[in-house]
Specification:
Blueprint: H1 2-14, E1 16-22, E2 28-34, H2 39-50, E3 58-63, E4 69-71, H3 78-82, E5 88-94, H4 107-122, H5 130-145, H6 169-181, H7 188-200, E6 210-214, E7 219-225, E8 228-233, E9 236-242, E10 246-252, E11 255-262, E12 266-273, H8 277-295, E13 305-306, E14 316-317, H9 324-331, E15 373-375, E16 420-421, E17 444-446, E18 471-475, E19 481-486, H10 494-529, H11 535-541, H12 544-574
Parallel strand pairs: 1-5
Antiparallel strand pairs: 1-2, 3-4, 3-5, 6-7, 6-12, 7-8, 8-9, 9-16, 10-11, 11-12, 13-14, 15-17, 18-19
Helix pairs in contact: 4-7, 5-6, 5-7
């Protein structure tokens, strides 16, 4: 009896596992779910925990053992997607940025989007000019500490807050001046709304960067925004395509293609190369989902998309969910008392420490903090003042740029160029939060410092991406990095995998060709043996070869098949 009870308990434990989801305020939600539970079940649990109704803008992100990021599929089993053993750790993040954050129905939704964009600002994904950066930081300061109080905020108080990966004393003074003089009396809700409206006007709003290289080998960052597809190189946005202009997204191994039709029926093809085939597939899936969400009017218009040509079995993917217009219509129907919001601005954040008073507290061991800033692509800093652009087929660069929002107009000084300066510095987000790991040989080591000379600690976002497996850092007594080493690790042979894929494609094409030939031959035989009185069929029937085939092969085969059918019919009737 006891053994039966114990075995039943063990089986129940095997059917369940723990799952931890880190939320946008860095709090954690842990639950126990069934092994066959789908992603939608876990997502609904989190939204219920947050009292969130406008949930279509959000998603759950996880990282696989190869350090490749993924969005959790809601229609698939969680355990089959993770590629690792439980317990699982994931993150709740904004997946589709609202085109107009001010139009969101509920304040809880705006607050969560505010937390995401504040995180983007800190990790370098939301890059902007110095004047815009100062205003954004001042809004965060006003939302989290309130009005300036000389008794609570001594001289230089803004230096204790970190809003960006690194900033200067001049920028800190500008942030303090704006907070002291221009934002007095604003409530947290008003400051957050003003922050969202200001961020929405920036070129890098909603950018989730994918590191790639163009056909010339220049580093670039590809991203999908609420308004279209964008390419960032150096401190410029070199390409922008509206979603209505993008006609097709395609990938083959590491190569990613974007097909578009611009004004005057000009067709262009942009080609980029991802670090790995898995990264390229993730980029393609993100593009398919974003295009369906922002471009279509109804979810019934969503179609299954294939990454391959005829006869080659490529990846097939279909976006499952509502589109942006349906989400807005559904949000307008929400009628309830606004849920209470527990703002966590004064709580130290493990990955976005915008508010720190005195020594910063954290549950992450000191040895795990990153005291270095690893640049994403070798030589990216050299593009700071450069004007590299991606070669485009069948179109001039002058028509590659289209205004992405009604607030943006082409500067008169640009002269119609597709390039647009987005900041004073090169676009270089922290590698620990990129959706794709970069190649080991292309990483540069650069120590980021504060103006006072102290190391600027850029902490990794746990469970999203961190120090690559096997990487070891040695710290000195003052906490500085003395040496960054890497242990040996066997990597999958991408060339062998590509060779296997090529062989399978050739074999698949051969089998399909043989199948088509067999089907055509069967159809021809049926037509010639039928009673159809057509000229070319009469000519075939009169040939000696057909007569021999008819009497020696076809007629005996037909009699044998008819005999078997009669035998099976009699057998079934007797039973």
């Amino acid at each position: 009896m006891l053994s039966r009870f114990m075995s039943g308990s063990i089986r129940n434990l095997e059917r369940e596992y723990n799952c931890t989801v880190r939320l946008l305020d860095d709090s954690e939600y842990t639950c126990t779910i069934q092994r066959d539970a789908k992603g939608q079940y876990l997502f609904d649990l989190i939204c219920h925990h947050l009292n969130l109704l406008e949930k279509d803008y959000f998603g759950i992100r996880y990282v696989d053992p190869d350090k490749q990021r993924h969005w959790l599929g809601f229609t698939k089993c969680i355990a089959k997607q993770m590629k690792s053993q439980p317990p699982f750790t994931m993150c709740l993040r904004v997946k589709f940025y609202p085109p107009d954050p001010a139009a969101l129905k509920e304040e809880i939704t705006r607050y969560l989007v505010f937390l995401q964009i504040k995180r983007d600002l800190y990790h370098g994904r939301l890059l902007c000019k110095t004047s815009d950066a100062a205003m954004l930081a001042a809004y965060i300061l006003q939302a989290e500490v309130g009005d300036y109080d000389p008794g609570k905020h001594p001289e230089g108080y803004s230096s204790k807050f970190q809003f960006f990966p690194k900033h200067s004393e001049k920028l800190e003074r500008r942030i303090s001046d704006i907070h002291k003089t221009e934002l007095i009396g604003q409530t947290p809700e008003e400051s957050e709304l003003n922050f969202l409206q200001k961020a929405q006007e920036l070129e890098t709003y909603g950018v989730d960067p994918h590191p790639c290289k163009d056909v010339s080998g220049n580093p670039a960052f590809l991203a999908f925004t609420p308004f279209g597809f964008t390419v960032l190189q150096g401190n410029r946005r070199v390409h922008f395509l509206k979603w209505d202009e993008v006609t097709k997204l395609k990938f083959e191994a590491k190569t990613f293609h974007i097909y578009a039709n611009q004004k005057e029926d000009k067709k262009i093809i942009l080609t980029y190369f991802a670090p790995t085939p898995e990264a390229c597939k993730h980029l393609w899936k993100c593009g398919v989902e974003n295009q369906a969400f922002y471009k279509l009017d109804k979810s019934s218009q969503v179609r299954t998309v294939s990454s391959s040509n005829l006869f080659f079995k490529g990846s097939r993917f279909r976006y499952s969910g509502r589109v942006a217009k349906e989400v807005m219509e559904q949000s307008a129907k929400i009628k309830r008392e606004p849920p209470e919001i527990h703002r966590a601005g004064l709580v130290p954040s493990r990955s976005c420490p915008s508010i720190t008073h005195g020594p910063r507290l954290t549950s992450v061991p000191r040895q795990r903090r990153r005291a270095v800033h690893i640049s994403i692509m070798e030589g990216l800093e050299s593009l700071r003042d450069s004007a590299h652009s991606t070669p485009v087929r069948s179109v001039s660069h002058g028509d590659s740029f289209m205004p992405r929002h009604r607030h943006h107009t082409t500067d008169a000084g640009e002269g119609g160029s597709s390039q647009r300066v987005i900041s004073d510095e090169a676009y270089c987000p922290s590698d620990s939060v990129l959706p794709t790991p970069t190649a080991e040989h292309s990483l540069e080591l650069a120590v980021a410092r504060h103006p006072n000379g102290a190391p600027c600690s850029i902490e990794e976002e746990e469970s999203e991406a961190g120090t690559p497996e096997g990487q070891v850092a040695e710290f000195g007594p003052d906490g500085r990095v003395l040496r960054l080493g890497r242990t040996r690790k066997s990597l999958p042979n991408n060339e062998v995998q590509e060779l296997h894929k090529f062989i399978l494609s050739v074999l698949r094409m051969f089998l399909v060709t043989m199948g088509l030939l067999f089907a055509l031959l069967s159809l021809l035989i049926m037509l010639t043996e039928s009673d159809l009185d057509i000229a070319f069929l009469r000519d075939i029937r009169k040939t000696p070869e057909f007569q021999q085939f008819h009497f020696e092969y076809f007629c005996p085969l037909r009699r044998w098949v008819a005999c078997k059918f009669r035998w099976m019919g009699g057998f079934l009737i007797d039973k």
